[in-house]
Amino acid sequence: MANKPILAIDHLEKKYGDTVVLKDINEQIQSGEVVCVIGPSGAGKSTFLRCLNLLEQPTAGEVRYKGQDILKFNKTQLSDYREKVGMVFQNFNLFPNMTVLENLKLAPKRVKHLSDSDATDAALTLLERVGLKDKAQVYPDSLSGGQKQRVAIARALAMNPEVLLFDEPTSALDPEMVGEVLSVMQELAEEGMTMVVVTHEMGFAREVANRVWFMADGYIQEDGTPNEVFEHPKTERAQDFIAKIIGN
Ligand SMILES: Nc1ncnc2c1ncn2[C@@H]1O[C@H](COP(=O)(O)OP(=O)(O)OP(=O)(O)O)[C@@H](O)[C@H]1O
């Protein structure tokens, strides 16, 4: 392949004690790709995602970002890497004692040393992009779940990431809030953001992903286009899962 991957995963393994949760994962992600990771509960999807930014330490293997093994990064390199590879969590992780605007300004000021007024301008632009400019001065507690998650996405974008990792970003939301978050994510995908999304939202995976990885028992068992994985799954495990999810 001509393109160099932005992320390359080689022989990744994660064990907790004697329990092997991820087994020999080998994958590559190209810049601009949207990869959705699907699979049954307990398959290792979140653990895998957390290994990509070292919230979990892999027990073996390599994760290379633009050719460099992130497991060998020193503290400064790791902090630079986490600026470039942002993460959006299931439970938003907003700072409750800060306004929405302060949530967005904190890291750009502290880490990127932006001036207060530059950080404010950038934050307001991002809030506008996720449709929440009018919420700049409120505290997260007064927002709906969908609004909180849109703020969390804006906060991740405030660091100008090259890759965004999403860990079940809509799983904690009431059903009526899911669409507003997915549509922000879809816009990001259309703008060319590289995204790895662990999700139970099969509609999103079908429509927005370039590639779908089906994970079960700590392996990526299927890797293909949405059409390949949803319509023509090769393994029995994926066939069963997809039949149950799609309901036929
Ligand atoms: N800190 C930990 N210590 C021990 N076992 C863990 C730890 N974290 C996760 N596990 C185990 O690893 C396995 C994979 O968990 P993980 O959360 O990655 O799965 P998942 O595919 O994301 O599931 P779900 O869709 O339910 O979130 C599970 O069996 C889980 O119990």
TrEMBL record:
Residues 7-242 form the ABC transporter domain. It is found in: Cell membrane. It comes from the Bacteria. The keyword Cell membrane applies. Pfam families: ABC_tran. One of its GO terms (molecular function) is ATP binding. The keyword Zinc does not apply. One of its GO terms (cellular component) is plasma membrane. Keywords: Amino-acid transport, ATP-binding, Cell membrane, Membrane, Nucleotide-binding, Transport. SMART domains: AAA (SM00382). Gene3D superfamilies: P-loop containing nucleotide triphosphate hydrolases (3.40.50.300). It is a peripheral membrane protein. Belongs to the ABC transporter superfamily. This is Phosphonate-transporting ATPase. It comes from Lactobacillus selangorensis.
